[in-house]
């Protein structure tokens, strides 16, 4: 094999590696785009050590697929981007499913965590997410599009986020609530919500 042939083969091999690397990056970007990410709070913290103070950053992050799966994570690092990245990974480890009827929650619920208290109520289509910034981040990442939310406790963003998560984790399907209370599904859930779910199932 002469020098020109070796050079041509080398260029072809390099081109293939370059294309493979680009495909790999594209796939990674596609996986990233599957999730919604919201940074709720970033704080600088200090630790007293021998010789002075050591500073670092903490980030509270909400991650969800916008279709009923959401999680909250807390990251800590010396730099803000690293703290956010750790928060995202932690949130993905704590994913949980949120039962939804079309675009809203199946029934009213109140979540309490530490000093945070958040009340959630179902809303009719087109209402939107009526909530403060911290609760809104959790609800939007979870895929709730129509809901009324109100904070009844501490306004602290971290407490509100955890209280909202607690409320979402308490949600049940109408069938579960009806069975527990010994009633029919029609007695538990509004007719409009049941009708919306039936329409969604038919269209699916």
Automatic annotation (TrEMBL):
It comes from the Bacteria. One of its GO terms (biological process) is translation. One of its GO terms (molecular function) is rRNA binding. One of its GO terms (cellular component) is cytoplasm. Keywords: Ribonucleoprotein, Ribosomal protein, RNA-binding, rRNA-binding. Residues 1-31 are annotated as: Disordered. Residues 35-98 form the S5 DRBM domain. The keyword Cell cycle does not apply. InterPro entries: Ribosomal_Su5_D2-typ_SF, Ribosomal_uS5, Ribosomal_uS5_bac-type, Ribosomal_uS5_C, Ribosomal_uS5_N, Ribosomal_uS5_N_CS, Ribsml_uS5_D2-typ_fold_subgr. It holds the Pfam family Ribosomal_S5. Residues 13-31 have a biased composition (Basic and acidic residues). The keyword Coiled coil does not apply. With S4 and S12 plays an important role in translational accuracy. The N-terminal domain interacts with the head of the 30S subunit; the C-terminal domain interacts with the body and contacts protein S4. The interaction surface between S4 and S5 is involved in control of translational fidelity. HAMAP family: Ribosomal_uS5_B. Part of the 30S ribosomal subunit. Contacts proteins S4 and S8. Belongs to the universal ribosomal protein uS5 family. This is Small ribosomal subunit protein uS5. It comes from Propionibacterium acidifaciens F0233. The lineage of its organism: Bacteria, Bacillati, Actinomycetota, Actinomycetes, Propionibacteriales.
């Amino acid at each position: 094999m002469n020098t020109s042939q070796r050079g041509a083969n080398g260029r072809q091999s390099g081109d293939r590696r370059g294309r493979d690397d680009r495909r790999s990056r594209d796939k990674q970007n596609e996986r990233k785009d599957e999730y919604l990410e919201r940074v709720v709070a970033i704080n600088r913290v200090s630790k007293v050590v021998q010789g002075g103070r050591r500073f670092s950053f903490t980030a509270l992050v909400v991650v969800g697929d916008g279709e009923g799966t959401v999680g909250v994570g807390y990251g800590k690092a010396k730099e803000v981007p690293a703290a956010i990245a750790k928060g995202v990974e932690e949130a993905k480890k704590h994913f949980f499913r949120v039962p939804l009827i079309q675009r809203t929650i199946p029934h009213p619920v109140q979540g309490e965590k530490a000093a945070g208290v958040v009340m959630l109520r179902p809303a009719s289509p087109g209402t939107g997410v009526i909530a403060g910034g911290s609760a809104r981040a959790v609800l939007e990442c979870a895929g709730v599009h129509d809901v009324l939310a109100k904070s009844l406790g501490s306004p602290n963003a971290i407490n509100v986020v955890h209280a909202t998560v607690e409320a979402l984790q308490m949600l049940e399907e109408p069938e579960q609530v009806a069975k527990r209370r010994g009633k029919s599904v029609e007695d538990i859930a509004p007719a409009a919500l049941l009708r919306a779910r039936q329409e969604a199932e038919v269209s699916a």
